[in-house]
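OP here, attaching both records as promised.
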Amino acid sequence: MTLDSKPSVAIQAGDSFDTGLFRSGLKINHLRLILAIDDHRRISAAAESLGVSQPAASRMLAEIEAIVKAPICARVARGVELTRYGEALARRARTIFLELREAAREITELKTGSGGSVSLGSVTGPALNLAVPAIRQVSTAYPGIEINVQIDNSNVLTRELLAARHDFVVGRIPDDLNPRLFNLVEIGFEEVCLIVRQGHPLLDHASASADDLPGYDWVFQPPGTLLRRAVEDSFISAGVRLPSTVINTSSIILTLSIVRNTNAIAPVALDVAKLVAGNGTQAGEIRILPTEFPIRIKPYGLITAEGRALPPSAKLLYDLILKQSRT
């Protein structure tokens, strides 16, 4: 495996960087590894995401570099990054996987006579107030359509979009991804609040200050996610130390369960809090905690991959969500 700080091998004139790569032994799993490295920027994390060992991933990378006759990765301070040769291969690999997914979708539709399929990723708040009404309209108008929805944070969803696992995403472009890889149409702001259990000590006050909060356990989204950073920025702006006891999870179900059964505090979308608070179920034992400080998070939007056209069924849902956001 070549992980030099600077690429030292150039492609010679006459070398083929097209379908000849497959004739030379390039495999689909090689392309999966390149995309995993591009997404995770560490060989170990890329290997884990593919379910292989790090030595196996290193061997695969060495095979790719032998086939391409150029270095694919370069070592950097926090892991690895793709060289220009690796970036070229990754860009084409994403197109290949997109076309394979579209081929599978088209074949399924031809076999079943269905009205098409859509794969959507969304952060929680917009999924409730925009995606659900739009999905209801599409399902009513086109009974044969199949709609797949993943609810997660924007860090996960945008990478799934780049990997061609979604047609489009409702969320935000993370700071660590190149915005030129996407098209974004801003459609709204997501209000955020803090939730606690019914009977929580902080509910005895008219509103909680930032100073009241660090002494309690917190349930956060994973580090680096936009909602978590927004809350942490609110602490820093108020000159208050960050909570010391933190449970990290992207699961809203687990978040609600922990908050309901402990004195933990969690930030969630206001639409989620309103959906569960006081609804008569066990989840309804959740309460919104009034605070003296705002939690600001940047606008969300409809995100598509640059240079990738939406299939008709996905374009229909996209347009309905866009229309819903403007009513």
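Record two, same layout:
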Amino acid sequence: MPAPLLVPALVGVAFLVLPLLGLLIRAPWSDLWPQLTQPQVGQALRLSLVSATLATLVSLVLGVPIAWVLARSTLPGRSVLRALVTVPLVLPPVVGGVALFLVLGRQGILGRYLYEEFDYTIPFTTTAVVIAETFVAMPFLVISVEGALRAADARFEDAAATLGANRWTTFRRVTLPLVAPGVAAGAVLCWARALGEFGATITFAGNFPGTTQTMPLAVYLALQSNPEGAIVLSLVLLFVSLATLLLLRDRWLGRSGAPLA
């Protein structure tokens, strides 16, 4: 490999890997289990797992139809719709939290109606955590499923149509099984992104232990008073991220060489 390529590559690898090695080197391994068994850690971990799973389920229900519309329909303005759907990918999460607050807050566009008619508020509740995570994570699912739909052979769908199957039956019995690996990969990415969400959650849901304090928020809080606890919590999230990559390795490194999206 030419030196002008090798040297920057080595520097880039070091830049990405050294911080992760720092977590492993500085981790209080002898105190790991006591740190993990603290009540607040268990609460944050359970809330993170439950909220990320619920956000992924909501993303599947809403995101798969969106991906189908983007990949298969002839709806005018699909490029605009795609841009709007993928905005949360590049939008700062804190801005997303502010936007959710302006829509669903007590004085928001929809939140005002919920409060006045049903005396119900969404911000600073566990529901707000799920909504914030869904907002930032669903685009990952949409992109993955849209890519799978575009790569799928449409002739199978055409054959089903010639045999008398309607669009819903074709989608359920033919299209969905064809793109199932893409849906699974998108769901895993969506779940991992929801698990690591911080900015939109703390802005829209707050940081209340047992109610809205997820693992990333617990890391931020522990870093101010218990650095070793913050390292332990960070290790948990690191291992979850590595597990996610291992689950997706076959899709990334498969024979086709096709990218995830």
